[in-house]
Every structure is written in C-alpha cells, then in structure tokens.
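Treating backbone geometry as a discrete language has practical consequences that deserve illustration. Part of our work consisted of pairing the sequence of a single chain with a tokenised description of its backbone. What the numbers capture is local backbone geometry rather than side-chain detail. For completeness, the protein is quoted in full, as a sequence line and a line of structure tokens:
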Amino acid sequence: MFTVSGYADVPEADRAAFAKGLPEHTRLTLAEPGCHFFSVKPHPTILGRYIVNEAFDDEAAYKAHIKRANRSEWAKISRNIKRSY
C-alpha cells in the first residue's frame, strides 16, 4: 500500500473553482485502478486549507494518478495550490 497524507492550501481567489471541481476530481480518482482511498476535506479551523489522504496499491498506481490528474481540468484548477504532503 502506498499512502499520501498532508494538506493543501488553496488561495482565496481559487477557492470557488476548487470547491466546484473537487467532486469530479474525487470521482475520477476513486475510479482509477489501484486507488483504495481518496479524501480531501476542509481543515476545521484554517480557512482555505484542506486535509488530504490517499491510498493506492503501490507507487506506480500513485504515479499513474498524478499523470492523469496533470492532464485534466483539475491541473488548471489546482495550479496555484501549495501542497504539503
């Protein structure tokens, strides 16, 4: 099992697009081969921060996820997000 966890800080100007695009990104990610778990939830006290938890079969499945996401609409939506995983 390959897991990723941490957080993403979404700039205020990008929050509406992020919130709108996240359900589709989540749906597509959960449909990927090797994805066991994918969760992106708002931090309870820090505005614009999202807690990220992901689990894949292995690193290869995670890399395939990144490759797919980088070619999707999500890449445009999330381009300004600071990720700390």
User: Anything to note?
Assistant: The two ends are 16 Å apart (CA to CA). The chain has a mean pLDDT of 97.
